[in-house]
Design a protein that fits this description.
By secondary structure, this protein is mostly helical. It has 7 helices and no strands.
């Protein structure tokens, strides 16, 4: 939450216009999904690779070999990244702050299973989060009453955040 908000504010600070997916949700996702999942830094290229894999698995109903070839190449790049992270972290003390750390701490999965879960989570998040945000923003902008309610809720959340922060030592 805090990381997403900080990155969003950084991106919005100097803009008068923004394309929601390419200019806001993708950069926020790229900077926050890796640490949340425990996969380190995730680049925008890796987000594209993850979406390419998703597209081949779930949308390439005609099994177009060009799509599948690009997806296999993308999957290989993702596997290289996730494998290196899992190998680096597998011998460490358990760190429950991220998903990979919790999976490692559970000591129920093989290294190959950890790698596959990491790739699967990255593919799922990359394909769904930005799209969902774009559809949400589009719907919200078309509904003036809903937009006003969202603004009010956001302002109340800001007040709640400030209240909580002021009561902590």
């Amino acid at each position: 939450h805090d990381e997403s908000r900080a990155r969003s504010e950084q991106l919005l600070a100097c803009l008068s216009r923004i394309e929601v997916v390419g200019g806001l949700t993708d950069p926020v996702l790229a900077s926050t999904v890796g640490p949340y999942l425990g996969l380190g830094t995730v680049t925008r290229r890796q987000l594209v690779d993850a979406r390419t894999v998703f597209h081949d698995i779930f949308i390439n109903g005609l099994n177009d070999p060009r799509v599948s070839r690009r997806a296999h190449e993308a999957a290989a790049r993702l596997r290289y990244h996730v494998t290196s992270v899992v190998e680096d972290r597998h011998g460490e003390l358990p760190d429950h702050r991220d998903i990979l750390g919790r999976l490692i701490a559970g000591d129920q999965l093989t290294q190959t299973e950890l790698i596959n879960h990491g790739i699967g989570l990255l593919v799922a998040w990359s394909a769904s989060v930005s799209r969902a945000m774009a559809f949400t923003m589009d719907a919200l902008f078309r509904q003036p009453v809903g937009f006003a309610l969202a603004q009010k809720a956001a302002m109340q959340a800001d007040q709640w955040t400030m209240l909580v922060a002021s009561t902590q030592p």
